[in-house]
Amino acid sequence: MSEATLIGIDLAKRVFQLHGACDDGSVVFRKKLSRPQLIAFVSRHPRCVIAMEACATAHGWGREFEKLGHEVRLIPPIYVKPFVKRQKNDAADAEAIVEAATRPTMRFVALKSEAQQARAMLFRTRQMFVGQRTQLINALRGHLAEHGLVAARGPAHFKRLADAIEDDDPALLQDVRELGRMYLEQIEGLNARIADIDGKVKSAAKEDGLARRAQTMPGVGPVTALAIETFAPDLATFRRGRDFAAWLGLVPKQHSTGGKQRLGKTSKMGQRDIRTLLVSGAMAVLQAVERFDTPNNGWLKRLLTRKPRMVAAIALANKMARGLWAMMTKQEDYRNPAAMMA
To answer: pLDDT tens-digit profile of 161-190?
Structure first.
């Protein structure tokens, strides 16, 4: 029996489906293995290409397979779906992964290192704590509104609720104040944890050279710079800046046919974290332009007169993404237009 040169693995928690194929695409084997059996089988198999869908555990498995001398290819699940034949099951998914991996124009996901995944956990943990804090604030606002104490939305107006609880407002019952203090203790604990994580993010951004270079661009802070280093692959893998902007989902969605271009809303089909941070940074730049009338921003001023602010922010975020690609690939800091004209 000929050896498989390409193995597709449908990942799971306990049972893994393998599909082995030769260079001509013929099937060599179909196996169902447990977690301990998978490593043992791959370690005995001659060097080959191992393809998997890019999911939560794919990067850890990919690093283990690379240590055993195999070549790893990770494919976005949306690119594997068209190759699934009729009924969906583990065997069909593994075969579809092999079919997708053999396509000459297929796009693969870069394998993440342990350090990148550790930084990603830092971002995800911060997001979880921020969400829990928002949940607690909203719950406390809703409870106190039932007792006649109403405050506007947002953390800036939360102080009114906290002061009413701490000052023993006679309009609130004692039980309500005691339960409110429980909410305040939980919120203060989350504030401390979020501040601690923010400190770790800032220190990590200072130590990373690429993150320091990215922060020279207006609208890019330590969180955005470290997110690009964490979630994005090597920017040199993109041929040009517009490819990086498209990967982030900062381009219009196309509905073109018959040679006629029809562009719709922003695709939002790329990396969500970086895209959100770039749009937030663009909004901060637009506010500075409107408030301080900064020079050499005629393009933004004209855009704001013609388009809504969010549309202008997305256009600026697209421009920022292209600029970041140029800065990283050319190893240059941001060039300030005002300093260049002086």
So the answer is: 888 888 766 777 888 888 999 999 999 999
pTM of the predicted model as reported, rounded to 2 decimal places:
0.81
Helix (H, G, I), strand (E, B) or coil at 74: strand
Q: What are phi and psi of 319, to 5 degrees?
A: -65, -40
Cβ–Cβ < 8 Å for 321, 231: no
Find tokens 């947002």 and name the residue. Answer: 154
Burial 143-182 (b: 16+ CB within 10 A, else e): ebeeeebebeeeeeebeebbebbeeebeebeeebeeebee
Q: How far apart are the first and last CA of the chain?
A: 73
Torsion on CA atoms 52, 53, 54, 57, rounded to nearest 10: -70
Shortest CA distance to 60 belongs to which of 111, 6, 123? 111
Q: What is the distance between the alpha carbons of residues 234 and 220, in angstroms, rounded to a whole number? A: 18
Neighbours of 288 (CB within 10 A): 15
